[in-house]
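Protocol step 6 of 9: fold each sequence in the batch and record its structure tokens directly after the sequence line. For illustration, a two-sequence batch is reproduced in full.

Sequence one:
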Amino acid sequence: MAKVNIVMDMSQFDMFRLCEERFNNRYNLNKTATTKAPQLDRGTLVHLACETYYEMLKDGSNYQDASVAALSKIRQAAVLTTDLEPEVVNRVIDVMEEYFDYWRVADQNLHIVAVENPFLYLLHEDDEVRIHLAGKIDIITSDNKYENKPMDHKSYDRTYEVNRMSNQFKNYCYATKSNYLDVNLIGFQKTLKPHEKYRRVPLSYDPYILEAWKQNVIKVMYHYLTCIAENSWPLNETSCDKYNRRCEYFNVCDSSGAEAKFYKLNADFITVEPWDVSKVLRKASEVLDDAIREKEKETQDSV
């Protein structure tokens, strides 16, 4: 009998863990909200700027050229790929300009191995299933102490404690065979000083922690296969309100009967293309290039 192949990234995995029905709505039925949260657009701009900046540093450019190019990318992307108000875009530019300056000396001394590095690896294989995990690491660095150490950019509004239990972080470490990772915090607070909002938090995971994480992922994936086989996606009511944010599918799940749920799902959400691992692995700059081509095509079609 042919083996079942599972491919997931940690965004999918985390959503499945939060609520199987939410996962079903998003990744099986391909239903999503009609608008993106502003934080998603802002985060995209931050990652695009960082990709441009660190890629140029990696290739030997100086700080001035790299920072100017990165800020220009924000302006370009804001026009073509987001619906953010000008004042929000200007705030992103101000924050990133200050961020680049704050880490100016340290960043120019980094030995950058890769930027926006995609990966897809086989986590587990047995007689029934192959489990592949995918992702994209913002930066990988190496020095005489740490080899292939991942760094993950996180923009934020409120100070919080970094979650060492993050599946994303453990996945990065497992993929790079590193026991260490840096979380690069980029704060948007207006009242904090640079050293308070631009922080790099080191995390470490010993082999026992990573192995325990792997075994847990395998068990969850077998539960995922059961959901597929039975076409049954349990509702996790404890996840309807998480982190002071109500699930986008709350009104759908709160409906009485299958017909009412079907109506709300189709009335309040749009159908998007199925999840594609190749798109997840693309760099932010590649997504921007597509947006530019699409914009040009729309302009030509309207003439």
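Sequence two, same batch, same settings:
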Amino acid sequence: MSEAASHAPSVGEPLDRIDGRLKVTGGAKYAVEFPLANMTHAVLITSAIANGRVKQIDSAAAEKAAGVFTVITPKNAPRLTGSAPTMRVPTLLQDDVVHYNGQPIGVIVADTLEHAMGALDLIRVQYTEERPVLDMDSAPKNPPESVHPLGGERSTRRGDVEHGLAEAAVRVDHTYTTPLENHNPMELQNTIAAWEGDQVTLYDSTQGIFNVRSSIARAFGIPPTNVRVVSHFTGGGFGSKGGPWSHQPLAAMAAKQVGRPVKLVLTRRQMFGPVGGRPRTVQRVTLGAAKDGTLTAIRHHSTSSTSTLENWVEPALSQTKMLYACPNLETVYDLVRINVGSPTFQRAPGESTGTFALESAMDELAYELGMDPVELRLRNYADNDPESGHPWSSKSLRECYAQAGEKFGWSKRNPKPRSMRDGNVLIGWGMASATYPARTQAAGTTARMLPDGRVWIRAGTQEIGCGTYTIMTQIAADALGLSPDRVRFELGDTLMPETPASVGSVTAASTGSAVHKAATALKKKLDELAAGGTYESVFARNGGQPVEVTINSRPGPEQQQYSMHSFGAVFTEVHVDADLGTIRIPRIVTSHGVGRVLNPKTARSQMIGGVVWGVGMALLEATEIDPHSGRYVNADLAEYHVPVNADIGMIDVNFVDEHDAHVNPIGVKGCGEIGITGVAASIANAVYHATGKRVRDLPIRLDKLL
């Protein structure tokens, strides 16, 4: 069994993506590319009002149109025999109530997409309309007892905030707002549903195949084992595909009704409303500090918008409770229901919006104190989790400040606003802290060695563009002592062992730990069977059959003994035209401590993507709602602005070498979410340094600087 020593470790090496060639040559098969016989095509009928009821849908002409199989509406939709799915939008044509503009109110199924779209033009809908609630600022807040961020408590308190503010030498008290935003992954939401008896298969673009399986099973009142979900590649999700939405059960409903497979692809406009987005937040932050910068009190209140369908809360206060040492703290959530589509998780949900407010306020406090922003943060460095009192499993934030600050040249900064310029260009330097929790969840994996010496690893996870195929191959190869080309990693099928959804930076930590344990267990089993011989002798004695192990990995007691987070620092330079107010970002330097970096190439790509998202959040992105009709006004990529190549300057990504023996068996924290946190605040702080104008309402557009 000496082969293990003959291969250098691949974990930590910048291995090229295993699936890279498939993607660039068109060989990667996405959900709607599975060719099923007798395929039909569905399109959604969506509401044109934001509040009321569907009085009548005249579908007679559409039903007679060429190629149309059926038109399903609330009047004729099959009654679902199961429980209402615990999804965010139980809008499955079971009633005629309209909650937002763009809500699915019907489905057309035809033999071609063109025939389905043609029939859609023939649909006529009458409504009983009610005045929608669209202004979050004037709408009543939810009862406090109904506000539970991520199922938790509405408010938290430690110490005496009023006393801490009273004894503060310096205070800042400001309100920061972030707008509605939408995910806009390149690949639209889509699914294919096909029934065979009482069993259904969905080929779905999703971040969570087992979430979809559970939702379909509940909706149709069938066992989860009767539902198979397949997703080998997903073209981006960013949270929008993390849970089930209405289009998946509607596709299954349509397929059951026509007795043929149904393909349903949302339009770009339908990506606004029916599949979630980031809610609007209004956050008031009050900080008190002694003259030396020591925080005496933190008060952070966040009010976010939700739909009339559910009480989903943007967890924007999570980082405030643990990022800085402060004896007196108060956080409170409020919620306002308006007639929009249900919000959901969007890249670093909560921490992205929350760090904008908190880190902007910290910058304002630094100016009030006449203190360097980095020095202020170091003065309030938390050596243990201030909320739980637990030690950190690992923390490298000091090193992140030092590494990124040195690379950026922060020591050369003139702290006075409008003091740095190049001709008519105002130059600003800003910084902010970044953080995101490190979570590990239960996951399963099967590892099998074939007689020819190749290994197959199978886990029901998802590839959403982060490099899952690659890093899982590296983990398994190292555990087995093999080269990566001897390992084949397969994913994306609910027939495989169950793993968590690819959300919240849990995949590398959770599925990666399971892969490591399964591969280690397989190697141990092979070693025991070989009893000092060779692998070939094992298979000879095993009748030439593969050797296989299946394990289920679960978090250990360390989860309750340590506080587990990634940390980072973001330094930004902005150039602002003194006359026009246009903002350019020539460079952003980051440093993060994210535990063990499995693959520097894929990890760096994740961080770059997060920073680009932060630029969009700071300067460009906002979902606009018509104040009268509730219609999403900019529901396309022409009007919903996201950064393009010309908007992005140099992004210098750095990692602190961080060993974490407690977080999970492979020491991984994940880096899909943290990259966006702190970026918007860093940019806003740089804009203030350049112009002397503090913009507390995102996005920062030129009209707010003129």
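Proceed to step 7 once all outputs are recorded. Observation for sequence two: The radius of gyration is 27 Å.
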